[in-house]
Amino acid sequence: MPRPRMPATTAAVCVLALAATRVVANPVVRRASPTWEGGYYNPTSNGGQWLTAARDTYPAGLGEPINVVISSESDGVLMFDEGFFDYSQSLQFSASCLGQSGGLEQEANLGDGNGMHNQSGLLRENFGDPGFGTCRETFEGGYHYRFWRQNGTAANSGAWFLAASQEQDLAAQHDITPNGYDIGRDEVVRRAVASGGTKSPLTNRTFTATARNASGIGYYANVSTSEINHGVGTDGVVMILTVKVTSNGSAPSLGASSSGASQTLVPSRFTLAQLLGTAALTLFAVGILV
Question: Does the keyword Signal apply (predicted)?
Answer without folding.
Answer: yes
